[in-house]
Every structure is written in C-alpha cells, then in structure tokens.
Write a structure and sequence with these properties.
binds glutamine, 6-stranded mixed sheet, D-Maltodextrin-Binding Protein, domain 2, 239 residues, 14 strands
Length: 239
Amino acid sequence: MKKFMKSLVLFLAMVMSVVAFGKEKLYVGTNAEFPPFEYLEKGEVVGFDIDLIKAIGEKIGMEVVIKDMSFDGLIPALEANKVDIVIAGMTANEERKMAVNFSTPYYTANQVIILNEDNNDIKSFDDLKGKLVGVMLGFTGDVVVSEMKDVKSKKYNASYAAVMELQNKKIDAIVLDSETALNYVKNNKGIKILESKGQPEEYAIAISKKNTELLEKINAAIETLKKDGTYDALLKKYM
Ligand code: GLN
C-alpha cells in the first residue's frame, strides 16, 4: 500500500508539472552560422532571429525549442514536419515560395562583395568576371553568382571557412548577405566590403503550407512586436 501511495504521489507530481510547465512547443529550425541573426555563443544558439522568435513564442503562448542544422536542410526539415517553422535570415524568394509559406518580412538586406583590403581591381559585380568567388551552398548569394556569366564559384558550407580562404588568397571574393558580411569585416583583419549594392532581399519566417493557422498567429505577433518597440530594441541590440 505504501508503495502504491508513493507511486501515486509521484504520478500526481508529474501530472502537475506538465500542467504547470507544459506550454505547447514550437520547434524552430535554424542554421547558427549567420551572425548577427543566429550564431553560437558558448555552445548556445543566440542572435537577432533567436530573440525575435522567442518574443513571438511568448506572444502566441508557445515554448520555443531551437534545432540547429545545415542551411540546405532547413526547408526539407519543415516539409518532413521535423520543425514547425524556420527562422534563419532566410530570403523569401520565388523558388522557396513554391515549397513553403513565408510570414510578413522582418528585415531587408542585400548581397554585397567581400574583398581583401588590398584588392583594387574589383569595383562592381561585373568585375567578378573571370574571378573565383566564394559562396555559401544554397544561399541566395550562391544563386546570384551561379546566374552570372564567366564567374567561377567555390561553394562553402560555412561562411567563416570562406572568409579564411579569402584571407589566405585562395579565392578572390565572397558574395554574402550585407549584415553578415559587415559582421565578418568587423571581426576579421584585412578584409573589406565593396559598397556596391545588389538586389534587395527580404527575410521572413518559413512555415509549412499546411499550417496557415500558425502563420496568421505569427504575423499578428510580428505586427505587435513592431508596434510595441520590441523589434526596434532588437535591431539596436544586434545591428
Ligand atoms: N539570406 C540568405 C538566403 O536566404 C542567407 C541566409 C542564411 O545563411 N542563413 O539564402
């Protein structure tokens, strides 16, 4: 009997903790190699996107669980229901819109060129002709460079690897999203950004096409966070 009471108490304690702490979970896919939007700090995924999705989670009453994976695995993970949403500085482009829905955009960026400081012969995207250009596999920069004539590209899985190869003069340039490029230039010696603007791109949260209810909730939360100052505070913190 004593034993039974003991397990009953244990069981009740478990039930109570689920009731008390059991917020519905929101599984969020990201690729923590895109500072300042998402990156690793002491083994933890942090950044603008992470703070933003946590604030959204609070607004919609869900507990955010971050899943870090490769960038080109994010949309497949969404399609396979392994994550509920993706936030990864992901550009809402036409090709991806065929596979997933996107929230209202939350950031506008563009593609820029990173060069060694002593490189003075590349002054525009046109000057990349005949050069070897580093891009990140599956990023919009990869798409932009692949569409250019007479430009050779070397594809990387991680942008810091491309930056190292640029510094070692293994490649001539890197094409990357503006804010992340700025972040690398700030933290690495001997490289610069070419002030030549590529096409603007809008970052948005990706959600399965089947989950329109969640999409609406997230859009409403983004709107609230833009109005109540949370969004501006995050910009200030990270940009
Ligand atoms: N904005 C770029 C894209 O969508 C890069 C995003 C990223 O690396 N996280 O392809």
